[in-house]
Design a protein that fits this description.
53% of the residues lie in helices and 9% in strands. By secondary structure, it is mainly α. It has a domain at 33-123. It has a two-stranded antiparallel sheet with strand order 1-2. A hairpin with a 2-residue loop joins strand 1 (44-49) and strand 2. The protein is flat. The N and C termini lie far apart (91 Å).
Length: 133
């Protein structure tokens, strides 16, 4: 750095008070195309639905347009709609069936917890004088 950059003190070589040694800051991280697309589709827009203004994401608006075009007779949009719905339903059903899968250590803890709750319920039934056996 030169002595005239205004950041360093020419006598001591140290930074002057209230002056940053890195005035331009850290460079921004490069953004990928995927990040740019995801950021764009999640941006909100104002749309008019049924005479009322509402905020929706661009993704919701685009999905609604594809579905509406398919319903109005556009065969390409209709096929796209059915394909997207089929994939979404498959992923949703997979998520529901896979949601119960736990690692063995977690499954053991969950089983112990369920067994403890069942024992507590049984004990309450045994001590409940109003319940007939």
């Amino acid at each position: 750095m030169s002595d005239t950059d205004g950041v360093r003190d020419p006598r001591t070589g140290r930074f002057r008070p209230n002056k940053s040694g890195n005035p331009r800051g850290r460079p921004r991280k490069a953004r990928s195309a995927d990040e740019a697309i995801l950021r764009a589709v999640h941006q909100p827009v104002v749309v008019t639905e049924g005479g009322r203004r509402r905020r929706r994401t661009k993704l919701e608006v685009a999905a609604a347009q594809i579905v509406n075009q398919g319903a109005s007779g556009n065969l390409s949009a209709g096929k796209t709609t059915f394909d997207l719905v089929r994939r979404a339903e498959e992923r949703q059903s997979q998520a529901l069936t896979a949601g119960g899968d736990l690692p063995p250590s977690d499954q053991e803890i969950a089983d112990q917890f369920v067994a403890k709750i069942r024992r507590m319920i049984e004990e309450e039934r045994d001590h409940d004088p109003t319940e007939t056996k």
